[in-house]
Every structure is written in structure tokens, then in C-alpha cells.
Write a structure and sequence with these properties.
Order of helices and strands: EEEEEEE
Number of strands: 7
Length: 102
């Protein structure tokens, strides 16, 4: 993924995700309403459930898809002892979380 040197955020023109998976996410909401993902639970293709709690949020942004508000979090997560870059998407109207794997 690319970074804009002037903004410190990831390039909005990104490649297509390899996979999009529905996940369970434990989040922290502070008094101002800022949402921070703390831990994610994913069902892997081998039908086992894994919980990853070493999440570092690189950047976050609020987006709209066809008028539907969502929050995107570019994160680095330790998955099976490998640091992996993922994007977490949260839709506040339906309270659904998705993980986009690149």
C-alpha cells in the first residue's frame, strides 16, 4: 500500500482486496464517540475461530458508499506470527464489521 507523504494516510486508489470476510470486532468507544478496534475474531477457511488482539491502527477515515456511512481502519495485525496489513470496515447503521485482506 502507498502512503501520501503530505498527509501520512494511505493512497485512496488501492488495489482490489483478495478477500472480504465478515468478522466480530471488539471495539472501544470514547466519550467523544471515536471508535477504536481492539480485538477481532475471524473464522478461517479451515472452519476454526481465531482471535487476534495485537492490532495497530495506522489510519482511519469516514467514508460513504452509495450514501451508506462507514468507517475504514487501515491496520497492522499479527496473524500467525506474521505482521499483515488489513483494512477493517465498520457500518454503524447495521453494526457489521468486515475485514478486507490485500
Amino acid at each position: 500500500m502507498l502512503f501520501h507523504p503530505d498527509r501520512g494516510t494511505r493512497d485512496p486508489i488501492r488495489k482490489q482486496p483478495r478477500s472480504i470476510r465478515h468478522i466480530a470486532c471488539h471495539m472501544f468507544v470514547n466519550a467523544h464517540g471515536k471508535i477504536t478496534p481492539i480485538r477481532i475474531t475471524v473464522m478461517e477457511p479451515d472452519h476454526k475461530t481465531y482471535t487476534y488482539d495485537q492490532i495497530y491502527v495506522v489510519c482511519s477515515r469516514k467514508t460513504n458508499y452509495a450514501g451508506i456511512p462507514s468507517y475504514e481502519y487501515d491496520c497492522e495485525v499479527m496473524i500467525h506470527n506474521l505482521k499483515k496489513e488489513i483494512t477493517l470496515q465498520f457500518f454503524p447503521e447495521t453494526l457489521l464489521w468486515f475485514m478486507l485482506d490485500y
